[in-house]
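User: Sequence in, structure out. Go.
Assistant: Echoing your sequence, followed by the structure tokens.
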Amino acid sequence: MKVLKIATAGSVDDGKSTLIGRILYDTKSLTDDKLEAIENKSKQQGYDYLDFSLATDGLVAEREQGITIDVAHIYFSTPNKSYIIADTPGHIEYTRNMVTGASTSQVAIILIDARKGVIEQTYRHFFITNLLRIKDVIIAINKMDLVDFSEDTFNEIKNEFQQLVNKSEYKEQNVTYIPISALKGDNVVSESNNMPWYKGETLMTHLEHLDNAHIFNDGKARFPVQYVIRPKTEEFKDFRGYAGKVYGGEFNVGDNVVILPSKTKSKIKGIHFYDEEYETAERLSSVTFTLEDDVNVSRGDMIVKENELPKIEKHLEATITWMDNDVMKSGGLYTLQHGVNKVSAKIKQIHAKIEPDLSGKETEVESLSMNDIATVSLQVNKPIYFDSFKENRENGSFILIDNQSKNTVAVGFLK
């Protein structure tokens, strides 16, 4: 079954958790005991409606404050797809959490309170969807019930947001506007009778119709080896396979390939999935390759097509989001993890801090604090084989790890 990963974003009290709870309720994805707990808690709080935000806010402290303070991942399925939703915080100081939640997502839902319209956090959230090259963005204009389901209000917000879209340099992005009421359920899973002027799809119908293959940036075929399979049984005593997941394009039996970093050449002999064999390994398929030659391939190596080599460099230019309490300064030493590979990295230079609002404003700084986004230069102790993040999200991203605390202190996107 296809899996669609979704990031939600919005300012405080825009209704992200309520929207997710409504989706779970209307798709009948809540267990009986969870639904009973929501009903009881809603009554205790004196509500005459079900507080669907209780379906996702798992921490007592955040629930009592009425805010979401970390990234919660919610899983549910329909007959057509499985979904993973990252419910991220709305506060400005939790920008890093949205980057974390959105970094592996293919779709973003940005909520806007119909009473407030486009605000500062809206700029930030849309900037992050641009930074992370999320192809499909849904602008869910929520709380339409509080503005009398006004078509004029919807159009005003849509036109204002479209000005942001027009300024974006990421022109491949698809932006869809949907008027909703998460609390009442209008246009979330079911069509709204209160907004007959809206002729588009409901939120869930739109998600169901998205083509998973379309929402990944194409890029060139990449196959990072996760595991070397050698059964050493009588039946498969000579079998040597390389298991992993295909990113970018696709591979076919007979393709001439190169194994990195050794740059050894070979040819794909077979493509296996469990007890079946295929002629083609499509994008995002988890398979096992066999090669015609007995070559040295290990976990962490990458198989690529002979005529589609990635960049292989020790000097890296990247955009990073700083995620640690301790500041980052030029000259700092860290461990850079790219895929399953780890190398030592030095911050050679902080070029500029970027304002996450599509203004293009950059500020010269000597250090970075938590939630800062900046362009930097790094030097690693041995070459890595990568693509720019714009061309291949999976092979163009990395994390930085503090050598003492072992904390993940930054996420980066290679140029």
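User: And one key feature?
Assistant: Residues 58-69 have pLDDT under 50 and may be disordered.
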